[in-house]
Amino acid sequence: MSSAQEVFADWTSGTEVISYQACPVCKSAWYFRRRFCPSCGASDPATKQASGRGVVYAETLVHRAPVAEAREHVPYKIVLVDIDEGLRVMAHGEADLEIGDRVSAAFKPFLGGIVPFFAKSS
Ligand SMILES: [Zn+2]
Measured in angstroms, how far is the CA atom of residue 113 from the centroid of ligand 1? Predict the structure, then answer.
């Protein structure tokens, strides 16, 4: 296996995909890339594509832009979503999302790239 930095084709590089890692040993799933499982320490986690479907865990409406380039977007909704595969992601979402809503991800342009954007699903 190469020691070079692995390249993920996901939304951070402009591809409309949410990727995550999963442990081949204990089946934990997580979002931020690591070389070892945060639950059991096993190495060589698998990289997978998330379904983009889940449930809103928390939500907040951002009124103050964190950077000048984001001022045109305020107010905007930021959500934490528990994805069906067992990971939690932070993303943008529709303004009316509430905790417990069933959602699915699309993608929207934001600050020169794309970001996951969640909307209610049935
Ligand atoms: Zn594990």
Answer: 32
CA–centroid distance, residue 32 to ligand 1 (Å): 14
- Boundaries of domain holding 83: 53-120
Ligand 1 center to 18 CA (angstroms):
20
Question: Which one-letter amino acid corresponds to residue 67?
Answer: V
Q: How far is the CA of 34 from the centre of ligand 1 (A)?
A: 11
Q: Could you tell me the distance, in angstroms and rounded to a whole number, from the CA of residue 25 to the centre of ligand 1?
A: 5
Residue 100 covered by a domain: yes
Instruction: Give me the CATH number covering residue 80.
Output: 2.40.50
Q: What is the pTM of this model?
A: 0.87
- Number of folded domains that form the chain: 1
Residue 20 in domain:
no
68-114 pLDDT, tens digit each: 988 988 999 999 999 999 999 999 999 999 999 999 999 999 989 99
